[in-house]
Amino acid sequence: THPAASAPSPSPISSAGGDSHAVTRTLHGDVLVIAIDNPPVNALGVEVRRGLLEAIEAADADAAVAAVVIVGVGRNFIAGADIREFGKPPQPPHLPAVCDRIEASTKPVVAAIHGAALGGGLEVALAAHYRIAAAGAKLGLPEVKLGLLPGAGGTQRTPRLIGARAALELMLSGRHASANEALTLGLVDRLSKTDDILIEGLAYARELVATRQGTRPTRAANGLADEAASRAAIEAARKETATRSRGLFSPLKIVEAVQAALERPFDEGLALERRLFLECLDSPQRAGLVHAFFAEREAAKVPEASAARPRPIASVGIVGGGTMGAGIAVAVLDAGLPVTLIERDEAALGRGRAHVERVYDGLVAKGRIDAKAKADAMARLAGSTSYEALANVDLVIEAVFEDMAVKKAVFTELDRVARPGAVLATNTSYLDIDEIAGATSRPADVIGLHFFSPANVMKLLEVVVPARVAADVVATAFEFAKRLSKVSVRAGVCDGFIGNRLLAVYRTAADYLLEDGASPYQIDEAMRAFGYPMGPYQVIDLAGGDIGWAARKRRAPTRDPRLRYVEIADRLCERGWFGQKTGRGFYLYPEGARTGVRDPEVEALIEDERKRRGVTPRSFTDEEIVERLMTAVVNEAANIVREGIALRPLDVDVTLMHGYGFPRYRGGPMKYADTLGLANVLASLRRFEKEDPLFWKPSPLIVELVDRGADFSSLNTTRG
Ligand code: 3HC
Ligand code: NAI
Asked: Which stretches make up the 3-hydroxyacyl-CoA dehydrogenase NAD binding domain (predicted)?
């Protein structure tokens, strides 16, 4: 739909010289409609800012104009500042000045909002004197997610309009509010009764003119009148931010700006906001978060998706109802698709179904969904112990045991029953998908869909592309990921694909440190300080040490005997110390506690291993720990890009941010390496190489890029 296009036949004003393409002005009687038309999302690039400023000045000067309506063309009002301009020299007119000029208009200005009114887009609306929103509108100040604060008066106008508490909550969470909620909060004055936001905006403006209601600057609103309540809200937000947003730069600045809104005159608050905004704009966190924003959109652009049309998917089969199968079932059911679950026997099927139900019960208990939504989802779930039930589904996802023989047997069955053209996917973590595809007569239909646990929560989907798969199957996988609201990344076939291959190197580097003198507790603390939610040994304790142990035993026969192998984790497992589920692992978990405590017996065990291996323990600083773990990951990731397992460095970034807890504000490991300077990364590798030439062998890609004076970002071109 094209709201502005469905307007009553427009009559362009003759005096509208300098009408820019991105902003058009149309006079409807005595109401001037200023329409923002800057696809895809009406971002406030320099053209739009200039056009808006000129239009509002023209309206003020034109005696034929009694009121103004600002509206967006296309699917949105305005999605905010043009994120592509960040990091480049800012070009006037600046958005705060444009907003001030709108607010200073002598004619009443109505913002007619549909779709997204986000960031600078909402700030434009707040600078207008009146606001009306369509039913599906999304209003928010998501700047914090980009390492910024609202920088066009948002920190000053929002609390004055809706109070400090609500304003802080919006700005610190960055979430989108619905039109209904926006009305309740007082962010908008009324809701549109129909879908035609332009007609409704015009009617609102005409009503204002007819009833002689004048301008109404938001800066004069009294949302901060209750000083004690405002102060309490600011202090509460400051406290919460210190713990919840640990390591982040912009949230505390948001609190500071709102405090200025309470304590200082409007213009002083605005000046402070501008200064803080520019500080944030300059921060590496802003650069990392903006990289993350674009990287997760670019990652879905793969050659196959632009070369081939996806196959339609209307029903899904899942084989294996364990941890992953049940989680995947929820993710698929949540997307509104019917699921047929296959298990080995009735008992296992019952467990799988119960697992799915438990997930929904949890969501109901938390108030995320209601009982009816749960019932609707469960009604879409069918189950069987016979493969024949999959005869008509469009996509099958296999999630049985991680065992090649079992997987091959399953795919032989799928080949027998599935209809021609059905997509056959495996959720394997490590196994060779080319070999799995070889168990069928239709390898062109076989692909990897690697979900992460819990599959209905984790955003990442690694689409693993074997050699013989058809392009339209790859396109189908990316389309399917979008339907499941997943962030998708294309990976090639190798042991562990992108994510688990890097996880293995990360853990190996940590184990080397462990044997060489660092404690698991120091390593975990250093990585948390770097921004991971958990350190590597906490993660092992959470997932269960037995899983990695089984994988190590499986790989033992093929392990490169020249590679250093640390046995500490094996010693723990031999004692049955598998982590949280056994009450002890690298940490002790007294009486089922979720957070572990230091275990002197583990420290003694590590000390014994060092002695046995003849290692004289050294001490490492937290910085050295981060340097070694990150250098190892970046180096392996460079090999992954070089081998074409990842299309671009950004695909690695997205994988680790969405599947492995890599701190988003650093933009992923490759962005982080660029921030450090690739020459510095190479220098670290050269230093570590002297200790262990095999593990620390610099990737030829890093050597080549440093030689050329280039970095990873130079390889981040779109492949779509
Ligand atoms: N600037 C530049 N490009 C933008 C953009 C923006 N603010 N918002 C979206 N885009 C681009 C995307 O990169 C994408 O480009 P592509 O097609 O080349 O990949 C295209 O617009 C469509 O975006 P989506 O794929 O995300 O489309 P959706 O329909 O799924 O979502 C949206 C639309 C909800 C508007 C979503 O794009 C979004 O959340 N955008 C960011 C909003 C935001 O963060 N605004 C605040 C900016 S900071 C600010 O305003 C500072 C101010 O206070 C001074
Ligand atoms: P699980 O052991 O919890 O579940 C496996 C299920 O498959 C069991 O319910 C079993 O009864 C069923 N099953 C086994 N053989 C079957 C057959 N022939 N027909 C039908 N059902 C059969 O295992 P989990 O953790 O769910 O893993 C499944 C797959 O997902 C594995 O390939 C694993 O590597 C992968 N994976 C696991 C992740 C995790 O975090 N657990 C993450 C990503 C992938």
From this structure: 316-491
